[in-house]
Design goal:
single chain, about 290 residues, alpha/beta, 9 helices, 11 strands, globular, binds flavin mononucleotide, binds iron/sulfur cluster
């Protein structure tokens, strides 16, 4: 019997917060008190704040086939407990003609789920949610009508997921793509340990920037510092796209050619090199 809900969320552009709100709506319809708490680098939770029958949820975007580092760090620091828990990762949903296309999770659910399992939690839900892709540094933004129809579809799926969890069912949709998610795990690792730092360095503010500092104030991980009246992106940046979306003057840009070269290195050359090295460790295996 679930008698309360706490959702910890992180979001760059609002998708994970929207999903959290849809779940909280279902919770409140069932007279189950819901709390939604934003994950920040300094948020600390202790086990006393997790009552026995409290359902715990984590909602966050997928970044480079992983959970964002701020979420990974938060889950690693999360207290041990036997509560029921669900994970919902928002991904890059798109729509080609009438076909809704999914994003790719990689380790975005698997690693946090493993950590929570080892901490004693009961995993009752693993649900990816293909909300509109916000990776606008690597592709053009989606049209308003497409965004609306993706949102309508995801709202229904998320609420159905919540109804099932509150009824005591277990939902493991996130495991459907398990073989593929494991296959791309070297790319998840390459992004986590290397790629994200390079991407953080691709943002620049153009001449239209009026030094309003909004980007610095709103960055969820305090990754921007103002230097000589211009934002400067530090390596703490999670590339969550919040600043790019919120800048009132649309001043934040990213050089696409540079991003393409980084993509090629991180997602193709480096994984291939790692794979080659791994195969060479065993002389009986085929070599390139
Ligand atoms: C830097 C970056 C990396 C991303 N990597 C992935 C990915 O590996 N797989 C995926 O499906 N979506 C990926 N996305 C898309 C987001 O996960 C997706 O748009 C999500 O719904 C955004 O949620 P938010 O609005 O809560 O931040 C990425 C987006 C960004 C900005
Ligand atoms: S929000 Fe935009 S205009 Fe304001 S400081 Fe940042 S980049 Fe410049
Ligand atoms: S600097 Fe911008 S993209 Fe990077 S974490 Fe902060 S808000 Fe997100």
């Amino acid at each position: 019997m679930i008698d309360s809900l706490i959702i910890y969320y992180f979001t760059g552009t609002g998708n994970a917060l929207a999903a959290s709100n849809w779940i909280a709506e279902i919770s409140e319809k069932r007279n189950i008190a819901a709390k939604i708490i934003k994950i920040t680098p300094s948020l600390v939770v202790n086990s006393e704040s997790l009552p026995e029958n409290c359902l715990v949820g984590f909602c966050y975007p997928t970044h480079g086939f992983n959970a964002p580092p701020v979420v990974v760090d938060f889950i690693l620091r999360f207290p041990k407990s036997r509560n029921r828990v669900f994970l919902l990762n928002t991904r890059a949903g798109m729509k080609l003609s009438k076909l809704f296309t999914p994003g790719l999770s990689g380790l975005a659910q698997l690693f946090p789920a493993l950590v929570l399992l080892l901490k004693g939690f009961q995993i009752v839900g693993l649900q990816p949610m293909d909300l509109p892709s916000n990776w606008i540094s690597v592709h053009p933004g989606l049209r308003g009508k497409v965004v609306d129809s993706i949102f309508q579809r995801c709202e229904k799926i998320t609420k159905r997921f919540a109804e099932k969890i509150f009824s005591g069912e277990k939902v493991y949709k996130g495991l459907i793509s398990l073989p593929f998610d494991l296959l791309i795990s070297p790319i998840s690792a390459a992004y986590f340990f290397l790629g994200r730092f390079a991407l953080a360095k691709t943002f620049v503010a153009d001449n239209s920037c009026n030094s309003c500092s909004l980007c610095e104030k709103e960055c969820p991980v305090n990754a921007i510092v103002m230097k000589i009246n211009r934002p400067f992106w530090t390596r703490k940046c999670e590339s969550c796209m919040h600043c790019m979306n919120r800048c009132p003057r649309r001043s934040i840009q990213t050089p696409h050619l540079f991003v393409t070269v980084i993509w090629w290195l991180v997602f193709f050359v480096i994984p291939l090199f790692i794979l080659k090295e791994l195969l060479q460790l065993n002389p009986d295996e085929a070599r390139f």
